[in-house]
Hints:
- This protein is α/β, with parallel strands linked by helices.
- The chain contains six helices and eight strands, in the order E-H-E-E-E-H-H-E-H-E-H-E-H-E.
- Strands 3-4-2-1-5-6-7-8 form an eight-stranded mixed beta sheet.
- Helix 3 (87-102) crosses helix 4 (114-127) and helix 4 crosses helix 5.
Amino acid sequence: FNMNYISNSVRSIAMVVANPVQGDSRVIKTAATLSKLGFRVHLFGMSKTAEESTLEGYPFSVELVTNPAPQLKKEGRWLDASGQRNIPLFIQRLAGNIAARMKNRSFDVLHTHDMYGLPIGAALKETVLRPSTLWIHDLHEYVEGCTHIDEYIRTTMLDMEKAHIRKPDALTTVSPILSKLIAEQYNVAEPELVLNAPRISDYD
């Protein structure tokens, strides 16, 4: 899609990641690059605790919403009936917490990251964002091949990927191999590449 009809300085981007932001170099570099290009970037992450907070020291705003885990544990709903982590409810609560911070604010672009970001993005598009808001999703990993994580989490997130992968207006990913795998697996256009590499603009 093309956004050349307006200047960068009036375009507002809501970037979403389901982690505390600090230490996620890919997300930070993406947000910093967009900010450097003149976009107004608002990064929404997830606190490690039940408290909301903001992070200072970045050239863009960083808001950490409440982590749903403590409340779910308090309610006795952290595990589902089968004794597994209640991932769908966790994602639903996290999306709701982010939506509460986005309410009554206008964004031109939603930019989600990682496997949890895909279902969260779908929820935000359905609830709080304008229909005209463009959605970019960044695929950080090959979910089907993530055998290093709990099998229940892997299969649950793979089911969510299958359900939502065609909803974003554009996909990006980390490598040519993963781009081709995603295209073949879901019959979508090959995601554009944003490599995990230093920014050229960081060099003189």
